[in-house]
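Table S2 (continued). Query chain:
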Amino acid sequence: MTSIHLDGLLIGIITFLIIGLFHPIVVKTEYYWGKKCWWVFLICGISGIIASLFIERVLISAICGVFAFSSFWSIKEVFEQEGRVLKGWFPKNPKRKYPDHK
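Corresponding output:
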């Protein structure tokens, strides 16, 4: 009888959770700090890539890779989130100044 390998399923589930977790992180980050904190996502992404390259276990290495590229994608999303706020789709932070939007 063949055994069932769960690594692919676990990678898929964890990818789903990481992507789901990054959405509210991007929204909250833009609300409190604006797009000027994009570099935090860059550092997280670079750290994830480095970890992925040096970790031998495929499952953990893949999770680090998913985390890294989710961080890179979040850089784009934090800039787009400001546009969503300016369109009124998300609340503005009353303590922050926003560029004029026409």
